[in-house]
Write a structure and sequence with these properties.
The structure holds two protein chains of two kinds. Chain A is an all-alpha fold. Chain A has twelve helices and two strands. In chain A, helix 2 packs across helix 12 and helix 11 runs antiparallel to helix 12. The longest helix of chain A is centred in the N-terminal third of the chain and has 39 residues. Chain A is globular. By secondary structure, chain B is α/β, with parallel strands linked by helices. In chain B, strands 1, 2, 3, 4, 7, 8, 9, 10, 11, 12, 13 and 14 form a twelve-stranded mixed β-sheet that branches. Chain B is globular, with a radius of gyration of 24 Å. The chains are: A mainly alpha, B alpha/beta.
Amino acid sequence: MAAATKRKRIDLGPWAFVAPALLWTAAFFVAPFIVMVVVSLWERVGTDLVASWTFANYLKFFERGHFFQAMVNSLEVTAIVTVTSIVLAYPFAWIIAEKVPARWQRLALVLAILPFWTSYVVRSYSWLLVLANNGIINQALLGIGVVDEPLDLANSRTATVIGFVHFFVMLLTLTIYANLVQLSPNYRKAAADLGAGPLRTFWHVVLPLTLPGIMVGAFLTFVLCIGDYITPQVLGGNNELLMPQVIMLQIGRRADFPTASALAILLMIVVTIAYLGFARWIRLERA
Amino acid sequence: MTKQVRKTKLKNAVLGALLSSVVLAPLSAQATEELNALVWCDHTDPALIEPFEKKFDVKVNLKEYEGTGAALTIVEQSQPGDWDVFVIDGVDVPRAIDADLLAPLPADALPMDDIFPALRMEANHVRDGKTYAVSEKFGYNTISFNKAKVDPADMEDMTVLWSDKYKGKIAVYDYYLPVMGMVAVGLGKKTSDLSGADLPEIKDTLFKIKDNAKLVGEVVASQTALATGEVDILVGGGEWVTAGLSADNPDLDWILPKQGGMRWSQSIGVFKDSKRQELATEFVKYILSPEGQAKLATSSCYWAMPANSKAETQLTDQQKTALRWSDQESYIANSQLYPAPDAKLDAEMQDVWTEFLQH
């Protein structure tokens, strides 16, 4: 009996440690998610929510072209942002890790993430001013005679992508930098001993070994970008709608929580599929 | 419980009560009553609100929204009694009455006779002899433009918006009711007779406008686009966009085209579940007073005509000129009220609008 009591106490110990995390997840993820799933099966009829247990809200996504197009737009914008951010962040991280003296690297990283310190909304509106017809970019291009008419940069997909890339380059720089500084110099020495030049060493040794850092950053970029409402709303000029905007339209203007819930769950499914795609690469880090 | 423990607890309770009275008394002396109002952004101007706050020693909490659908969503997500004052589009007052949101107002204590006759709108505001809301401000959703950049004569015909003459120079105000109503007027329809059968033609025309548009934006974004020269024409604009900006940029103008335009009006009422009915009614009285009306008409968010004709005495000549006070009779004659769709048509119109945004 005494032994059994002792065994029971030992078994409860770990649960006590994980209980706060479990409770937190249950209260702030599982429960709201279940509510969202349930509501997505209801219907908005007039001003009432009716528990009709139907998949009609999910079918709307496929039946109404503007809903489906929103998902296509979201995936296109997210793909462009992710690839562009990686292409810009990698050299940036490499310069900080390889070319900046160790004692200055911390300062360089602080400077790299400095724009994070300003409000996300303010930063988006600032980009609108920068990209406007009479903004600094168009005025500079007109001033040096590169263009005769201002370029249509603001209120467009280009503006949305620029706003996103500005934010996510910083994020990716951090994840790639963290990976680069962990690489032992011996890898490059060994490659050089075997006759590989700098380019070949980078392509066959450094890049594959930093792939986990790239993929972790890319996944975070994907998740944050595809779910973001502010940037496309401020910079896109409503010239196309992305999924978060369509979801907000259902909530903000129609109080149609069932349709909004169904669209949000479909977006979650896409993010889950993306995770499964990225997980293969993310696992490399643990191998 | 021992006698000693009871004594200690009693002592602690007394000390706690004394401490509370010492600490909290000054706070309660400083505290003011609060009033929660659901409003369009023009009510957030401190110049409008502060005189009322000072007079009644009250803090007015203002939540701004755009579009009745958004307002009703906020109300649905709130607890009864959370809101005291409701500013709502005049055509949507019957929806609010149907939803049992509004309390009857003491019409005899309000300046009903001073309201412009076209703005009294008894059919919308009065039910079973009880007044549930009163018009407070009105204006037009039509065409605002920069006359230094576009030919004003072109703006007299609404169809120029869906030709490609000003392609890339147009912004559209992101509110489906006035813009769809305006397009309907441009197509020769009556907004009061709109039905689902009219939507395909309206949608096709909206898509043509979108092809010419640079952006679709809410109040501030669309105003900013016109003011900064990002666009030269604003569909759905009017004096609410240009009147406040005309002092700085006299080239900004607006027009009711020959087909006509949309007349909007805001109404103010008190929520039925308000726990501060008297104070909320005082707020309505203040807003409808000549002083409140003049400040509301020239609010920093947007200018527009006051509903109370006596506000004239509180406005300067420059302000009245910007508001085109003396032209109102002809403007009212050449404008129609917003469409007032039922729930089904409203949903269909919002679907069309979402398609328009996605186009």
